[in-house]
Design goal:
By secondary structure, the protein is of the alpha+beta class. Helix content is 34%, strand content 18%.
C-alpha cells in the first residue's frame, strides 16, 4: 500500500474573495526557463488573461531563471486565486509544449496566503529582492524580468 501524499494546500474556499497570496511556480528540474524575453512575455500575457478572467489584480511578479513569484489579490467576493493560478499554469504548460521549449513546469506550485496584518510593501520588497539575494544584480531595479500588471513598483515600495 502506498502512503498517501500529504496535501499542503488549503481548502479551495480559502482562495476565494478578497484574498492576497504569493505563488511560486518552478521549472521542472530547476531548468533555466525564464531567461528569454519571448518566454517571459508569453507568461506575462497568460497571467494577464487569467487574472482578468478570475477578477484578480497583480501587485508584482518576478521571473527568476528557474522559478517565478507572483503576488495576486482577489478584487471581489467572487475572485478565485486558486483557479486563476491553475489556469495560468495550464496556459503556460500548453505554450511550452506547443513551442517545443523542452522545459516543463513542475506539477505543483507553492503558495502563501497573506494574513490581513502582513505588510504588503514588505512582501513586495522581499519578492523584488530575490535577484539581489541570488547575486544576479546589485539592486532590484537592475533586474529585467520583474513588474506589476496593475501598479508602478517604484510607487508601491517607497
Amino acid at each position: 500500500m502506498h502512503a498517501r501524499e500529504r496535501k499542503h494546500r488549503l481548502a479551495p474556499e480559502n482562495y476565494r474573495g478578497r484574498i492576497r497570496a504569493t505563488f511560486t511556480v518552478c521549472a521542472k528540474n530547476k531548468a533555466k526557463l525564464f531567461t528569454r524575453d519571448e518566454i517571459i512575455n508569453e507568461f506575462i500575457e497568460r497571467l494577464r488573461m487569467t487574472n482578468e478572467k478570475h477578477q484578480v489584480i497583480n501587485w508584482c511578479y518576478i521571473f527568476m531563471p528557474d522559478h517565478a513569484h507572483i503576488l495576486n489579490e482577489g478584487m471581489s467576493e467572487t475572485s478565485d486565486l486558486l483557479n486563476g493560478m491553475n489556469l495560468f499554469k495550464q496556459y503556460c504548460g500548453y505554450y511550452l509544449s506547443k513551442n517545443r521549449i523542452g522545459i516543463e513546469l513542475q506539477k505543483d506550485y507553492y503558495d502563501h496566503i497573506h494574513r490581513k496584518e502582513e505588510d504588503l510593501t514588505r512582501q513586495i520588497r522581499y519578492i523584488l529582492e530575490n535577484p539581489v539575494r541570488k547575486g544576479l544584480v546589485g539592486d532590484w531595479r537592475e533586474y529585467k524580468y520583474k513588474g506589476s500588471l496593475n501598479y508602478n513598483l517604484e510607487e508601491l515600495i517607497t
